[in-house]
Amino acid sequence: MIYFFYGDEEFNLSKEVKKFKDKLDKNFIEMSFKSYENPKFPDLLAILKSQPMMFGKMLILINCLNYFSSKKADDKGFDDKQLEEIKQALDNCNENLDIIFAAQIPPDSQKKIDKRKKLFKLLAKYNSQEFLQIPSYKTAELEAWIKQQAKAKKLKITDEIASNILIQIGSNLRMLDSELEKLKIYAGENAVTKDMVKEICVTNEDLFVFADYLIKGNISKALEEYQKLLTKKHPLEILSVLHTLLHNSIQIKAYSSKYSPDEISKMINMHPYRVKLEIQKLKNVSLKSLVKLKENLTNAEYKIKTGQSSLETDKEVEYALLQ
Questions:
Q1: Whole-number Cα distances in Å, 262 to 43, 175, 236, 244, 276
Q2: Considering only CA atoms, which of 149, 154, 188, 185 is closest in space to residue 166?
Q3: How does pLDDT run across 208-217, given as a tens digit for each residue?
Q4: Domains, the chain, ranges and CATH?
Q5: Tens digits of per-residue pLDDT, 19-30?
Q6: What's the chain's average pLDDT?
Q7: Residue 316: per-residue pLDDT
Q8: Directed axis angle between helix 204-215 and helix 219-229, to 10°?
Q9: What is the helix (H) or strand (E) element at residue 313, kind and residue range?
Q10: What DSSP character marks residue 202?
């Protein structure tokens, strides 16, 4: 079967892929699961014609965002003849082979999926599904998602607790799911209480305090908060959230001279009240300093992930904060 998953909600898309992977025989996972990154035409055609061996179902994941992220309307990657060959390969796919084309837009990326592409229109005819982020201002939808996830984990929460979780943790689905897992371990068969949420879950308030000190240039206080956060989170997790907060701050600062808080909230998927607070906080902060800070953190992340850092991960992040 052919599947096409695309959109900017990484957690839900990844979870859907995981459902397929979990069905594979764990004893032969290295043979029955293959993943590829934007393969060129000859390689793609060979992949589509793969034949499962003796291990039952085979799953192939093709991460293909680059196929659709070009701003040009025409399909430069594949001509009409190549597209026809791709279609024939898809239509003649082995019945024991599942192929998932996944075009997931990463956080803070400027890439977009061009639905005018001929390949997009071709894949959309199969089992396609779009995964979109839930905007942070759609609190009812997010709370419903939290309750659904909690129910799946057999975690007892009320509507009020779901609201508390959203306020404390924020709208990132992966982070919400992670904190629900922690609450499940802590609460067990008992109902989750406000005190449990406050004590167990990483709070956005802690991250906001850290970011506020950092953005305002109070480095000593920022480092104190950073050390506190390290007791609950890995440095890269802190860095990921900080990237998002800084990205929002940069957008708010840049837009605040031209747009109203309500307009900005819709543009960046943030609650209007939070936008108003951020505008006030950023009143005496320059856009240049925000951009510089984000560049320092981006460089630190690159060094860590490519193995070029000569420091421990937490120290590399700390050094970026001090620059």
A1: 48, 26, 32, 20, 9
A2: 149
A3: 788 888 888 8
A4: 2-131 (3.40.50.300), 139-200 (1.10.8.60), 204-322 (1.20.272.10)
A5: 888 888 777 777
A6: 83
A7: 85
A8: 150
A9: helix 313-322
A10: P
